[in-house]
Write a structure and sequence with these properties.
By secondary structure, the protein is of the alpha+beta class. It has helices spanning 49-59, 72-86, 90-94, 150-174, 182-186, 257-262, 317-325, and strands at residues 4-6, 41-43, 62-66, 107-113, 121-122, 126-133, 193-201, 213-216, 222-227, 233-237, 240-243, 251-255, 272-274, 282-290, 296-297, 315-316. Helix 1 crosses helix 4 (150-174) and helix 2 crosses helix 4 (150-174). The structure holds 2-oxoglutaric acid. 2-oxoglutaric acid is lined by residues 1, 197, 199, 213, 225, 227, 233, 272, 274, 284, 286.
């Protein structure tokens, strides 16, 4: 996530033209993408899946996972409560609005992207996000009580994310020649933070002028995302945008900034954005897996050598986050 979160003003899909605060210049809104079969789809039941993950993390910074072991029922329940939350009346959703100015940094909102040519622009979408684990990072006061089952669905899904993340960290550590436990340990072990977000991108009258999320890499170590069936996610590679194909049942894994730093640049945080549709509502459910705020993350000592000196400063995750959100040098 990037930019400055504002209290939410829902984009009005009944409009026939885009309000200026959402419209980007052509230069600023390069959406030309192509379905790209090369974005790796990795079968976790296959014996070489660890090597394929490491290769995808080096080459793309993104891959899709099938046979990941997260039950379809847990995913569909997560999606149900998300869809039902966004179908609530605006006033009900607004009760959970975030308000960073008053220190309420979790909740319902929309994003304003700063510092782009033509001034600040809103992205065409709303979101809800809050931490789900560990217990010390959770504030249930910012979780919606409606719809029924919201809390249970998020907690159950988080349990699956814990297990999956452990495996991903192990495979990605091995791909760097480190012990399997190295990455989990470097990101805080049992204190690693799971932040759940729901993105809601309603139909847009002029989709060619808007973006759902502006280009960014994730602050996280990694992000595991469930999309609905409406395409829109694009990733940048070799100077152009590539559409991420919808693979039913797959989970999309983004390498985030913290893994890029820990790997001393061997793995790449993926630059991505989302487009929006004229007719359909797109939704996505990313889980951002982050180190605790106080933890210092830097290149792993075993990956710093005479030939390959450290490429990133070691710093507390909270300082990294502050600099990134405020567009300050790291
Ligand atoms: O909706 C998506 O596919 C991507 C969402 C995303 O990049 C974000 O929420 O930071």
């Amino acid at each position: 996530m990037t930019g400055v979160a504002q209290s939410a003003q829902a984009p009005a899909s009944s409009l026939v033209a885009l309000l200026p605060e959402f419209a980007r210049s052509e230069h600023d809104n390069n959406q030309t993408g192509a379905a790209h079969p090369e974005i790796p789809v990795i079968d976790m039941a296959s014996c070489c899946c660890g090597a394929r993950m490491a290769e995808a993390a080096r080459e793309w910074g993104i891959f899709q996972l099938v046979n990941h072991g997260v039950p379809a029922s847990a995913v569909s329940e997560l999606q149900r409560v998300g869809r039902e939350f966004f179908a609530l009346p605006q006033a009900e959703k607004q009760r959970f609005a975030m308000d960073p100015a008053s220190g309420k940094t979790e909740g319902y909102g929309c994003t304003m992207q700063r510092d782009i040519p033509g001034g600040n622009k809103k992205t065409w979408g709303n979101f809800l996000f809050h931490n789900v684990a560990p217990p010390s990072a959770v504030n249930h006061a910012v979780w919606p009580e409606n719809p029924e089952g919201y809390r249970e669905a998020n907690e159950a899904y988080c349990g699956h994310m814990r297990r999956l993340t452990r495996t991903l960290f192990e495979r990605l550590s091995a791909g760097l020649g480190l012990e399997e436990g190295a990455m989990a340990e470097s990101f805080g072990g049992d204190e690693v933070v799971f932040l759940h977000k729901i993105n809601f991108y309603p139909p847009c009258p002029q989709p060619e002028l808007a973006l759902g999320v502006a280009p960014h890499t994730d602050l996280s170590a990694l992000t595991v995302l469930v999309p609905n069936e409406v395409p829109g996610l694009q990733v940048s590679r070799d100077g152009r945008w590539h559409d991420v194909e919808y693979v039913p049942g797959a989970l999309i894994v983004h390498i985030g900034d913290q893994i890029e730093i820990l790997s001393n640049g061997t793995y790449k945080a993926v630059l991505h954005q989302t487009t929006v549709s004229k007719e359909k509502t797109r939704m996505s459910w990313p889980v951002f897996v982050e180190p605790p705020m106080e933890l210092v993350v830097g290149p792993h000592p075993r990956l710093i050598t005479g030939e390959c000196p450290d490429k990133y400063k070691a710093k507390k995750f909270m300082d990294y986050k502050y600099c990134k959100i405020n567009k300050l040098p790291q």
